[in-house]
Write a structure and sequence with these properties.
Blueprint lengths: L6 E3 L7 E7 L8 E10 L4 E7 L7 E2 L14 E7 L7 E9 L5 E8 L2
Antiparallel strand pairs: 1-8, 2-7, 3-6, 3-8, 4-5, 4-7
Length: 113
């Protein structure tokens, strides 16, 4: 898998679908900003993002600065600022879609690096 993967969601993905794999040591010393565009038919579903700093073992819902979980029900763009995570970054970001009926959403991540 490449580091940034465009995916097409056509069904609910309660565990999340991998869209970004930022292994170290390439990103060990620089914060990584990733813009993620979601566009298409949401089919009444809700899109969220999950982040893992340990290679996918533990996943946490992405939240804004007020602690509110990010959620989209229509086309949207979000910018994720991923942390510097020591000598061996193993950051993964997942798209999670729930409650949808016949969705067709393209998830497109783009980095500043």
């Amino acid at each position: 898998m490449s580091e940034f993967t465009t995916v097409n969601l056509t069904a609910d993905t309660t565990a999340g679908t991998l869209i970004l794999d930022a292994p170290g040591p390439k990103y060990k010393d620089i914060p990584l900003e990733v813009m993620v565009q979601a566009a298409g038919t949401f089919g009444s579903g809700t899109l969220a993002y999950l982040i893992s700093l340990d290679g996918g073992t533990n996943r946490t819902t992405v939240k804004d600065s007020t602690g509110t979980a990010y959620a989209a029900t229509a086309d949207d763009i979000i910018t994720l600022s991923l942390p510097v995570n020591g000598a061996e970054n193993n950051i993964k970001v997942y798209a999670k879609l729930t409650g949808s009926t016949t969705p067709d959403i393209d998830i497109i991540p783009v980095s500043n690096q």
